[in-house]
Amino acid sequence: MKQRIITGILGGALFISLVIVGGWLFTLFITIVASVAMIELLRMKKIAPISLMGIVSLVSMWLLLVPASWFDQLLPSHFTKVEIFIFMILVLLMFTVVTKNTFTFDEVGFVILSSVYVGFGFHYLIMTREIAEQGIFLVFFVLFIIWTTDSGAYFVGRKWGKNKLWPDISPKKTIEGSVGGIVAALIVGTIFQIVFPIFPSFFIAVFVILIASIFGQLGDLVESALKRHYAVKDSGTMLPGHGGILDRFDSLIYVMPILHLLQLI
């Protein structure tokens, strides 16, 4: 527990500091974090990061991760990032033939899905921070909602939880805890909106809170399902007492794309 608290304080302080600083330093930090998260996924699949498949996976993820402005500067091209990513998918499918299925269709699917999951998840975190004037407040708003949901679900579930939420995926989570997490998020999110009115109306703020809280929990379950499928307890050992990077960022990288795709931020 002591190690968990120390890691949480130090890691949280570093992350919050870099959110405040923003700019290229925050983007570089998130790129490193996303790379570690991708390596954790590769190891779950028992793929060596320093291998053809591992390097292709990392490059695919970086392609989706980096801001368009960085991409245009590093690789001036008439093609968009998504078009190049689609081309890479076609090349990967070609490899299944060239390698006579040594590189299988399942592995191609793993590379593609993992790249989208990690790459786009962290990409939208970077894009949110880059929003002029309000970016820092939007990032902190979503962070507070996710952290409050996790804490509320834990304490309410521990005291009153009886009905399992999804025992096949995460046996400790309860329906009571999930509802408690949403209620806690509504309280904290409402206070945040009153102090820092970043949304044009209270109704929109409540809607964003509900989406972030509900889908944040779903993002946590998605990562739990991944770990259960690959028979691992934690995604990694990067954060002593907390597991891996994916264990800490699973909700955030699931919620950010949804909020952007729904045009809520």
Task: Give structural notes.
There is one protein chain. With 265 residues, this protein is mainly alpha-helical. The chain has two domains: 1-130, no CATH class; 132-265, no CATH class. The chain contains ten helices and two strands. The protein has helices at residues 2-21, 23-44, 52-65, 68-74, 81-98, 105-129, 135-160, 175-195, 202-229, 245-261; strands at 164-166, 170-174. It has a two-stranded antiparallel ribbon with strand order 1-2. Strand 1 (164-166) and strand 2 form a beta hairpin. The radius of gyration is 19 Å and the shape is globular. The model has no long low-confidence stretch (mean pLDDT 88).
Mind sketching the topology for me?
Elements: H1 2-21, H2 23-44, H3 52-65, H4 68-74, H5 81-98, H6 105-129, H7 135-160, E1 164-166, E2 170-174, H8 175-195, H9 202-229, H10 245-261
Antiparallel strand pairs: 1-2
Helix pairs in contact: 2-3, 2-6, 3-6, 6-7, 6-10, 7-8, 7-9, 8-9, 9-10
Task: Provide a brief overview of the structure.
With 265 residues, the protein is mainly alpha-helical. It contains 10 helices and 2 strands, in the order H-H-H-H-H-H-H-E-E-H-H-H. The mean pLDDT is 88.
What descriptors fit this protein?
mainly alpha; 2 strands; 75% helix; globular
In DSSP terms, counting alpha (H) and pi (I) runs of 4 or more, how many helices?
Answer: 10
Distance between the termini: 36 Å
Number of domains: 2
Strand order of the largest sheet: 1-2
**Poorly predicted runs of 5 or more residues:** none
Tell me the overall shape.
globular
